[in-house]
TrEMBL record, chain B:
<comment type="function">
    <text>Component of the eukaryotic translation initiation factor 3 (eIF-3) complex, which is required for several steps in the initiation of protein synthesis. The eIF-3 complex associates with the 40S ribosome and facilitates the recruitment of eIF-1, eIF-1A, eIF-2:GTP:methionyl-tRNAi and eIF-5 to form the 43S pre-initiation complex (43S PIC). The eIF-3 complex stimulates mRNA recruitment to the 43S PIC and scanning of the mRNA for AUG recognition.</text>
</comment>
<keyword id="KW-0648">Protein biosynthesis</keyword>
<dbReference type="InterPro" id="IPR001680">
    <property type="entry name" value="WD40_rpt"/>
</dbReference>
<keyword id="KW-0853">WD repeat</keyword>
<dbReference type="GO" id="GO:0001732">
    <property type="term" value="P:formation of cytoplasmic translation initiation complex"/>
</dbReference>
<protein>
    <recommendedName>
        <fullName>Eukaryotic translation initiation factor 3 subunit I</fullName>
    </recommendedName>
</protein>
<keyword id="KW-0396">Initiation factor</keyword>
<keyword id="KW-0963">Cytoplasm</keyword>
<keyword id="KW-0597">Phosphoprotein</keyword>
<dbReference type="GO" id="GO:0033290">
    <property type="term" value="C:eukaryotic 48S preinitiation complex"/>
</dbReference>
<dbReference type="GO" id="GO:0071541">
    <property type="term" value="C:eukaryotic translation initiation factor 3 complex, eIF3m"/>
</dbReference>
<keyword id="KW-0677">Repeat</keyword>
<dbReference type="InterPro" id="IPR019775">
    <property type="entry name" value="WD40_repeat_CS"/>
</dbReference>
<feature type="repeat" description="WD">
    <location>
        <begin position="1"/>
        <end position="41"/>
    </location>
</feature>
<comment type="similarity">
    <text>Belongs to the eIF-3 subunit I family.</text>
</comment>
<dbReference type="InterPro" id="IPR027525">
    <property type="entry name" value="eIF3i"/>
</dbReference>
<dbReference type="GO" id="GO:0003723">
    <property type="term" value="F:RNA binding"/>
</dbReference>
């Protein structure tokens, strides 16, 4: 039994790869007719072949796996144009053989077809008999015409038949013994025959199930029942076959469904079904036999893929003016543009219609732009934003990049099935290959998988469990998850492979925040907390500090008190200091590159912002508090020091630009109904925007300097989203950065010079543009007025000689009268009233 | 006596003897301006949207809405031929099957009319043959208003597509575009400066959901040549439906959905203002 074990060993995905990797084999099958016979061999070995009425010798054979492989586009693209073309042609020819085409069928075909017919049992038999009968009737008719040399059917063979029969004296309807029926049925009733069932009909609906319990006749009925129960979920089973040997079933069975779709469904969903401990079903399509049979035992060295030169994917960093790029989605998502940010006007780089179906995402270092499509994710990059990679994931909704840009995590609510986890898929970005699939019940807390800062690990939390996986194997770290009963939340340090997680109180055991080193799983700090309502973990961007915001209800008090537990990660044993606040907390944010943090607290309309500084001795100092703020969100500049406090949406888009080095408010402004604030990656500019997704009018994005000076108002029809293209971390060492800071004055002189130049150039350009516009307009007016003057007489004529060209054209005619009229009107009544 | 439905349009002839009004009561009426006496009543099948006297004041034109199964038509009557009025038989009736006329004016010298359509198209129809002389489509949405310059050589259109545009009256060549963030209901050209004033705002339908601040019910002044805005006048708390300059160019007025007509006199700076060019 060569068939079943070979098949059993292959998973579906491998099968697919087999399809894509072995185009050669496919091509061979089709090209050589002998191959068809070889393929037929497993059939006779399979007793199964008889009852379902399917004969493995079928000319279309190779076409079927192709069809089943339809999803796999690489299979078609891979092997070059000739190979797939051949099966198609052959298939067509085979079909043509059965139909009464004008071109005679290829010589080999008719015998093969005839053979097939002879062998074809079951339902086809009556049809063929009927066909034969018709043929005989036709022959009889021809005979009854006497020796009519020109039977309607014509053709030399007919003549021969008639001639032979014509000699007979009495009407005998039996053929003479040496009669050879050499009229092919295609010739006689091709139009009927073309509709006859093909033996391959329905073969796509047959599945083979391996690892079925081997039972004797006494338990066969029970087995049938069980099998029926499991497999009729996918569609109506029209036929089954349980091969037997020595009174026991052989352990594999054949099932036929009403349609190939059901069979596919069964393969997809029942493969790997665990019946009991000993029996896990392996389900395959019957038509896949060929594919697996022809997989060579020898390992073929995969063909070397030609290197695709994508150009410099980081070209945008070499821009001489150090400008940044951003993406803009507008027209309610129909159009997506990429711009260079420029102080004067944005410079368009690329604009495409329907580039994405929902929104876009930049990868964390800015190399790729991801677009969303019903069928999956596409990545774009390089100077011309060419497509770099595609990831096929039906109905994808959410994605996440690993910080190292090696892996992409995609989520789709559509694809998951019990045995084939596909809700979340992790992909290798460079190769485009799927690394692993995961189940996922809810995407509510995206990202489900949180990455360590270097992309070496990723972790996910489920009930009482923290599962940490490692790359590139995508397997569980140390092959087991961590049991942490009650775990509520966790977070990776952005500065090292440390995980922080917290567990709420459980009866007498206090709530607990734990810092754990990985991969050693060593707990480096545990802090117990009491009367905890909720905790939130906030890492400073470098991982220097962790702030755990703890909402507590201390005994003997009413209401919630918030503690900010500040962990100093870089010091021995991780000392912790606490800031307590009695007011409700609206927002908290660390200064990205520094030791300050900002807190928005209070209740509208009495909202205050407080800035704290964590000193090197651990003391936490309140630097400044501003009250009466209109803000609900804190946006630190990526470089630190500067911060925008924004009252988004319901707070009408109030903006405050604060310099925290001396805590001065640099500017108070407003972008009415603003819904988003986005700092550029260098901290030079801020964009505020009103997205169509949250507000339907005045959709626009405004560009500000970090000090809050408004530079541009960019109105875009149904503007949706602006995202700055991130920059990879700087390659400069700390010393080099220090040196640059020291020499800042030297640089600033150069920049100021440049700015002045471009500014005067800009105003010059503006004036120049206006001048030409004025000039053009003047020319146009002159022309129009000349025409107007030419028509003067016509106008006069139309108005009975009265000149109405000027408001005072007729002054000469009735000047005095008018003036007197006005004077008397206005003065006399006044005088009389007095 | 008088109209029994909303009056959509009014026009006076050049010497202000007659006034023509069109109404949603399916009639167009001619009045004696001085006495207010109704001189003619022309019944129509649907509301009269636009009306006007030609340059000489002898021919009147009005257009009717596509409504209640009736087509949009432009009808022309020659007032010098009383039989046309008596029999309510225009000497010419142009059907506009595709898209209805939302605003129309007479072209210079009364040779043609210029009509703005619901689709944003502009058509120049001959007043003699009725044929389309020029067709342009520069606006993407309904044209709410057309106003000629004082010398009638050019006109400005106000459109729901948030822009107003300047065209040449003879060729219908597009000259300039003035952009705003709101639908423009009306636009008027200054008689003595290269200025245009635009009025509009959030559509009345949507006003309930937005504050006056978001409605932007402001009159906005643009320079004709450079297309740049140089002034704004606030005051209305509903969309502005119509704007007009005083014939001497020293003041302008605006009528709003809020029920107010505001008359504004320009500051001295207005007359001194010039763009740096």
């Amino acid at each position: 039994m060569a068939g079943p074990p070979a098949r059993g060993g292959l998973g579906e995905s491998e099968a697919r790869r087999g399809g894509s990797g072995g185009p050669m084999q496919d091509a061979e099958n089709v090209a050589a007719p002998e191959a068809a016979e070889e393929r037929a061999e497993p059939g006779p070995q399979q007793p199964a072949a008889e009852p379902p009425g399917e004969e493995p010798a079928r000319p279309e054979g190779p076409g079927a796996p192709e069809a089943a492989d339809g999803e796999n586009e690489e299979a078609e693209a891979g092997p070059g144009p000739e190979a797939p073309a051949e099966p198609a042609v052959d298939g067509e020819e085979a079909a043509a053989g059965a139909t009464p085409g004008p071109s005679p069928p290829p010589p080999e075909e008719p015998p093969a077809a005839a053979e097939a017919e002879d062998e074809a049992p079951g339902e086809q038999a009556p049809a063929e008999q009927a066909g034969a009968e018709q043929a005989r009737d036709a022959a009889a008719e021809a005979r009854s015409d006497g020796d009519g040399a020109g039977g309607e059917q014509g053709g030399p063979s007919e003549d021969a038949v008639v001639a032979e029969n014509g000699d007979a004296d009495e009407p005998s309807f039996s053929d003479p013994e040496d009669f050879v029926d050499d009229v092919s049925e295609e010739e006689l009733l091709g139009d009927v025959l073309k509709d006859r069932p093909q033996e391959a009909d329905g073969i796509d609906s047959v599945i083979v199930v391996d690892s079925v319990p081997q039972v004797g006749p006494d338990r066969l009925d029970k087995l049938r029942n069980v099998i029926h129960k499991i497999f009729s979920k996918f569609g109506k089973i029209t036929n089954d076959f349980y091969p037997e040997e020595e009174g026991k079933t052989k352990g594999y069975i054949f099932l036929e469904y009403a349609s190939p779709a059901h069979a596919l469904d069964a393969v997809k969903n029942a493969d790997g079904y665990k019946l009991d401990k000993q029996h896990t079903f392996r389900v395959n399509l019957f038509t896949d036999f060929d594919k697996y049979m022809t997989i060579s035992d020898e390992w073929d060295i995969p063909e070397k893929q030609p290197f695709k030169d994508l150009g410099n994917l980081r070209y945008w960093l070499e821009e001489p003016e150090c400008r940044d790029q951003y993406s803009v989605i507008f027209e309610s998502g129909d159009r997506t543009s990429i711009f260079w940010n420029d102080v004067k006007d944005p410079v368009s780089i690329e604009e495409r219609a329907r580039w994405t179906e929902t929104y876009v995402r930049w990868s964390p270092k800015g190399t790729y732009l991801a677009t969303f499509h019903q069928r999956g994710i596409a990545l774009w990059g390089g100077e011309k934003f060419k497509q770099i990679q595609r990831f096929s994931h039906q109905g994808v909704q959410l994605i996440d990049f690993s910080p190292c840009e090696r892996y992409l995590v995609t989520f789709s609510p559509l694809m998951d099935t019990q045995d084939d986890p596909q809700a979340i898929i992790i992909w290798d970005i460079l190769t485009g290959q799927k690394k692993r699939g995961f189940h996922c019940e809810s995407s509510a807390h995206w990202p489900i998988f949180k990455w360590s800062h270097d992309g070496k690990f990723f972790a996910r939390m489920t009930l009482d469990t923290l599962s940490i996986y490692e790359t590139p194997s995508m397997g569980l770290l140390d092959k087991k998850s961590l049991k942490i009963s009650g775990i509520k939340d966790f977070s990776w340090s952005p500065g090292g492979n440390i995980i922080a997680f917290w567990v709420p109180e459980d009866k007498d055991i206090p709530a607990r925040v734990t810092l754990m080193q990985l991969p050693s799983r060593q707990e480096i700090r545990v802090r117990n907390l009491f009367n905890v309502v909720d905790c939130k973990l906030h890492w400073q961007k470098n991982g220097d500090y962790l702030c755990v915001k703890v909402d507590r209800t201390p005994k003997g008090t009413q209401g919630v008190v918030t503690n900010f537990e500040i962990f100093r990660m870089r010091e021995k044993q991780v000392p912790v200091d606490v800031v307590e606040m009695k007011e409700p907390i609206i927002a908290f944010a660390w200064e990205p590159n520094g030791s300050k943090f900002a807190v928005l607290h209070g209740e509208a309309p009495r909202i205050s912002v407080s800035f704290y500084h964590v000193k090197s001795n651990g003391k936490i100092e309140l630097i400044k508090m501003f009250d009466k703020q209109q803000a609900n969100t804190i946006f630190w500049s990526p470089q630190g020091q500067f911060v925008v406090l924004a009252g988004l949406r319901s707070m009408n888009g109030a903006l405050a630009f604060v310099d925290t080095s001396d805590c001065t408010v640099m500017n108070i402004a407003e972008h009415y109904m603003a819904s988003d604030v986005e700092w550029d990656p260098t901290g030079r500019y801020v964009v505020t925007s009103v997205s169509w997704w949250s507000h339907k009018v005045d959709n626009a994005y405004w560009l500000w300097t970090f000090q809050g000076r408004l530079l541009q108002k960019n109105n875009k029809d149904r503007f949706c989203q602006l995202l700055w293209r991130p920059r990879p971390p700087t390659l400069l060492s700390q010393d080099q950065i220090k040196q640059i800071r020291k020499d800042l004055k030297k640089y600033s002189k150069i920049f100021e010079q440049k700015d002045r130049l471009s500014q005067s150039k800009a105003s010059k350009e503006l004036v120049e543009r206006r001048r030409t516009m004025m000039e053009d307009f003047r020319k146009y007016r002159k022309m129009a007025q000349e025409l107007y003057m030419e028509q003067k007489n016509e106008r006069l004529e139309l108005r009975g000689g009265v000149d109405t060209d000027e408001l005072d054209s007729n002054v000469d005619d009735w000047e005095e009268e008018t003036i007197e009229f006005f004077v008397t009107e206005e003065i006399i009544p006044l005088g009389s009233q007095e | 006596m008088g109209h029994t439905g909303a009056v959509w349009c009014v026009d006076a002839d050049w010497d202000t003897k007659h006034v023509l009004t069109g109404s949603a009561d399916n009639s167009c009426r001619l009045w004696d301006c001085e006495t207010g006496k109704q001189l003619a009543l022309l019944k129509t099948n649907s509301a009269v949207r636009t009306c006007g006297f030609d340059f000489g004041g002898n021919i009147i034109m009005f257009s009717t809405d596509k409504q209640m199964g009736y087509q949009c038509f432009v009808s022309f009557f020659d007032l010098r031929d009383p039989s046309q009025i008596d029999s309510n038989e225009p000497y010419m009736k142009i059907p506009c099957n595709d898209t209805k006329i939302t605003s129309a004016v007479w072209g210079p010298l009364g040779e043609c009319i210029i009509a703005g359509h619901e689709s944003g198209e502009l058509n120049q129809y001959s007043a003699k043959s009725g044929e389309v002389l020029v067709n342009v489509k520069e606006h993407s949405r309904q044209i709410n208003d057309i106003q000629l310059s004082r010398d009638m050589t050019m006109f400005v259109t106000a459109s729901k597509d948030n822009t107003a545009k300047l065209f040449d009256s003879t060729t219908l060549e597009h000259q300039k575009t003035f952009r705003t963030e709101r639908p423009v209901n009306s636009a008027a050209l200054s008689p003595n400066y290269d200025h245009v004033v635009l009025g509009g705002g959030q559509e009345a339908m949507d006003v309930t959901t937005t504050s006056t601040r978001i409605g932007k019910f402001e009159a906005r002044f643009f320079h004709l040549a450079v297309e740049e805005e140089f002034g704004r006048v606030k005051g209305h708390f509903g969309p502005i439906n119509s704007v007009a300059f005083h014939p001497d160019g020293k003041s302008y007025s605006s009528g709003g959905e809020d029920g107010y007509v505001r008359i504004h006199y320009f500051d001295p700076q207005y007359f001194e203002f010039e763009f740096e060019a």
